[in-house]
Amino acid sequence: MKKEFIGKLENFPKYRATAINALGKDIVVYRTDKKIHTFLNICSHEHFPLEDGEYDDNTVTCSHHGAKYDLATGKVLALPATSPIQIFKNKIEGGDVYLLIEDPK
Ligand code: FES
């Protein structure tokens, strides 16, 4: 598994969605008390960004039409979306945050 540095932990304030570009993709970094969620900044419904959604510890609700997703799995919890969002694994190491990238099989 490879890792891609995306920033210092202190650059991601708690309970605020931060939009970044990494791996050539638009990604949201959302930090809670316990963990960091990293996922594609595109709602699967009509492809609006998710960075301005409503968040709690485990979910994001798209501000455009209300689709809700599980931040751990990407699964849809509320319509109108029917497809999951892409989640990226991440790791915090010595105050640095990395995306983890699966090696191609
Ligand atoms: S674009 Fe997100 S719910 Fe429609």
How is the main sheet built? 6 strands, antiparallel
Mean pLDDT: 95
The CATH architecture is 3-layer Sandwich
Q: Could you tell me the CATH topology label.
A: Rieske Iron-sulfur Protein
Instruction: Compute the CA-based radius of gyration.
Output: 13 Å
CATH superfamily: Rieske [2Fe-2S] iron-sulphur domain
Q: Give me the number of helical elements.
A: 0
Domains counted in the coordinates: how many?
1
Distinct ligands: FE2/S2 (inorganic) cluster
Query: Which sequence of SSEs, written as H and E, runs from N to C?
Result: EEEEEEEEEE
The coarse silhouette is globular
In the sheet with the most strands, the strands line up as 1-10-9-4-3-2
**Fraction of residues in H or I helices:** under 10%
Kindly report how far apart the N and C termini lie. Answer: 11 Å
- Segments where pLDDT lies below 50 for 5+ residues? none
Which secondary-structure class do the elements indicate?
mainly beta
Under CATH at level 1, the class stands as Mainly Beta
**What portion of residues belong to β-strands?**
over 45%
Number of strands: 10
3D architecture notes:
The protein is mostly beta strands. It has a single domain (2-101), classed as Rieske Iron-sulfur Protein, CATH 2.102.10.10. 0% of the residues lie in helices and 47% in strands. It has no helices and 10 strands. The chain has strands at 2-8, 17-22, 25-31, 36-40, 54-55, 59-61, 68-70, 76-78, 87-93, 96-101. The strands form 2 sheets. It has a 6-stranded antiparallel sheet, with no helix packed on it. Strands 5-6-7-8 form a 4-stranded antiparallel sheet, with no helix packed on it. The chain is globular and about 40 Å long. The termini are close together. 23% of the residues are buried. The mean pLDDT is 95. FE2/S2 (inorganic) cluster is lined by residues 43, 45-46, 48, 62, 64-67, 80-81.
